[in-house]
Specification:
four-stranded parallel sheet; 163 residues; Rossmann fold; 4 strands; elongated; 4 helices
Length: 163
């Protein structure tokens, strides 16, 4: 036995199904412009450069960026000089801890940035990889350490603007 839908009701039903399909396509095609981006900064010890980059991304990203840092061989502590020089910029790096790549979430990152330490992080899923080639400031005099910090800030600003 077949059920017959009156022509007028059938036309309305077709219109509703068409509208639903159109809305579904539009939702699939448009990611929200303010979607949170994920960024990972990696260095060997995760005690200086990657920590400062994470801090600047948190400051400058203002909730629009999920930021992480890690090391391939973490030192277990954040360099006290990095804490001191980031405090000059209003950021309390003492809240951070040095961590390894196994501590980061298993997600796809929008960008993974190595700081110039030769790490490639092949196990990290990312849409974009960059190596910034930044020298390790660990043993540098204070003014050179600040120059490295400021260079990291500039690079983080450019990265966030490009995401």
């Amino acid at each position: 036995m077949q059920t017959r839908i009156p022509a007028r009701s059938g036309n309305i039903l077709i219109l509703i199904v068409g509208l639903i399909a159109s809305c579904a396509r539009e939702v699939e095609m448009k990611a929200p412009a303010d979607a949170t981006k994920r960024v990972l900064f990696v260095c060997i010890e995760n005690s200086n450069r990657s920590q400062m980059a994470e801090a600047f991304a948190r400051q400058l990203g203002q909730g629009k960026v999920e930021t992480y840092s890690a090391g391939s061989r973490p030192s277990g502590r954040v360099n006290p000089r990095a804490i001191e020089f980031m405090a000059e910029r209003g950021y309390d790096l003492a809240r951070h801890r040095s961590k390894g790549l196994t501590a980061i979430p298993d997600v796809e990152f929008d960008a993974a940035v190595t700081m110039g330490c030769g790490d490639e992080c092949p196990l990290v899923r990312t849409r974009r990889r960059e190596d910034w080639g930044i020298p390790d400031p660990k043993e540098m005099p204070p003014e050179q350490f600040r120059e490295v910090r400021d260079l990291i800030e500039q690079k983080v600003k450019a990265l966030l603007a490009s995401l």
